User: What shape does this take?
Amino acid sequence: MMDTAIDGGCQKKCWGAAAVIGLLVLIFALAGHRGIVAAILLGVLAAVLLGLLFVWLFCAPVPKPGTRPVPAPLKPAPAPAPVAPAPVTTSAPAAPAPEPEPAEKAAPAAEEAPAAVQPSKPLAGEEELASRKGSWTYEGEAEAPAAEEDAGETRPEALTAAREGGPDNLKEIKGVGPKLESLLHELGIFHFDQIAGWSAAEVAWMDSNLKGFRGRVSRDDWIGQAKILAAGGDTEFSQRVDKGEVY
Assistant: This one.
């Protein structure tokens, strides 16, 4: 009876303290320009949460020191029910196992196929057919002839090597760099007069076959530059090359 009264007084104090704090929260919320509804909700929420927390912290029963809970006495386990002995039945003697049936007799060996009938006289055309027998080999189709040059394009005449005195410096032609000069040498072009004498069909062939530099011959006017250089003249670009300003 005394413990119940003490617990009730503790809870009242805890809820009273929580209510005071909730009222303070309400006042501070109103002072902070909160709406009255929001301030009331904050105050009630603070009071409820703090009241539950205070009751749990301060009003929970504390066990007295030196006392231990006495375990409940163990109940004896019920004795197992007696098992009735199984009725003894006399079993009939086991029936003898059936004897295995004899294996089926092997099927008679297949009759041998009759030997092929051979004609007594040679058939007509047999000798001619036998004479044609021999080794036969597959002959693939003949390789197609090399594709002719495209219409309107003609490969320029090439030299196997530069003339006496060495090749011209083809890099003096604007648009011809070291890599393109090596490619022209591979195609048999070593001198300015070769380029100066190209026809329109030969220019078209070179424009189509300069790998990585297609269209360069026409775009940079190699023919006009080569004619000046083949005649012993200079261009503005060739003078820069001679001075070492290019490449």
Confidence is low (pLDDT under 50) at residues 102-111, 138-148. The longest helix spans residues 2-31. The CA atoms of residues 104 and 110 lie 17 Å apart. The chain has nine helices and no strands.
